Amino acid sequence: MLKKYLVVVMTMGWSVFSAGICGAAEEGPKAAQPAEMSADLPAEVILDKVKVQYQSLKTYQAKGRVSFRMTFQGKSNDQETDYTMALGRPDFFKVVWTQEAAGQKHQGSAWNAGEGTFIYMGTGDIYAELKSGEMALGAAAGISGGSTNMIPPLFFNKRSLLGNLSNSHIERKEAVNGEECYVVTADSKSLQQKITLWISTKRLLILRSEYPLGKMSGAAENLTDQDIEEALKSMGEDVTEANKSRMKALMATQMKMAEGMNMEGKITEEISDIETDIPFSAKGFAFALPDTAQRRDSMFNFSLSEMEEMSTSMEAFGGTNVDDPQAQELEKRVAAVPEDLKSRFKLLGYYFLRKDDDSRRRKQEHILWIIENHPGFEGGMMMSPYIMLHPAIDGETYETARKLWLKNLQKFPDNPRVIMNAAKFFQLYEIDKCAELLKKGKELEPDNHAWDREWEMLQSFRQMRSAPASGSH
């Protein structure tokens, strides 16, 4: 469940951050055929020529593997993603990736064959049309472990990981798959980290890249007004000063949360079988959907309000860095002001990492208080792993929480927010009850796509558990 939450966080972050990485056109060298390389060219000139090279290509095809190595709160989370990529002018693309989940391999894809931009998730066998290519490639980056981070922005002349580099150096020459490469290191303003690139000395194409998980502090400050405006446009939001301020605040909150997650690791991408300037037709960029795939209208099309709501639920992440004296101070605040929800959420994060009986008891008390006093809480907290209870581990407390939710549903039978939060409670251990509540919520709010997204997630759980679906939405 924690892995699912992290994926949601990354995907949300990319929905905003893609404006800075995959959004507005990059300023820099104009596209032209690069000159012959010289052995004594400085690293910054080589990097400029790499950007020129990608911008000069008519088509680009390749295979790749992204290795994602992460340690989160002392636990390793390694994942490898294999992908194929095809890019064409002016805005055609098809990226198909394969990952393993729950012991099974699943495929995903993002594509634009001239009839809209789409994304497909094999884990739920669902697909949807997104509002822009930037949103599709940004969402794909979050889902696929970063397969669309590097090359598509370079090809389409968008803000790329090569756009804000400094202190670049050629460290050495080294072969990758038998092809001689410059090994170039540089400081990335976008990543707040050092990036290493293996660049073909003959073709000026990137064959390998490696960088640590970014230090997110300062990332929001690096976004320009143009970045913010592009993000709002890609989400279908009005570009107003109020919305720009909301977006900037949202980004700062997400980056602060990500920084507090104590994630360490690195991302390595290997690229092979590169072919360029191959004649193509638009239909070649279409992804062949499985016959069983179901279309959804809402997947990843988050509104600004929905993203703000989900960010509120991430307050608990800050609690993972709270020490014992700070936790005692937070408990005093909550005792004095029970409605201090931010302090409660941080305490949930603090207790989440502690397995002693007293911590478990205090966590359970806070969860029950929230369910009883704020069943309609609009911060999305009910999707957080920090507030979840397990019937076997939490025993009587789980049963007490279950009774509280049933009581809340009787008291607020037509309150969509209460119904949604209750559905999230039942999502893992009482799937049929969750399905019943999601159907009711959709009847109450037929135009609210949040119900569709929760239904999609529920069907993914069903499939991963190899359990038959009960009815249809």
Strand content: 15-25%
H/E series: HHEEEEEEHHEEEEHHHEEHHHHHHHHHH
Tell me the radius of gyration.
24 Å
Main beta sheet: 12 strands, mixed
Can you give a write-up of this model?
With 473 residues, the chain is α+β, with helices and mostly antiparallel strands. The chain contains 17 helices and twelve strands. It has a twelve-stranded mixed β-sheet. β2 (75-88) and β3 form a beta hairpin. The longest helix is centred in the N-terminal third of the chain and has 20 residues, at 2-21. The radius of gyration is 24 Å and the shape is globular.
Give a short synopsis of this structure:
With 473 residues, the protein is an alpha+beta fold. Helices cover 42% and strands 23% of the residues. A twelve-stranded mixed sheet has the order 7-8-9-10-11-1-2-3-4-5-6-12.
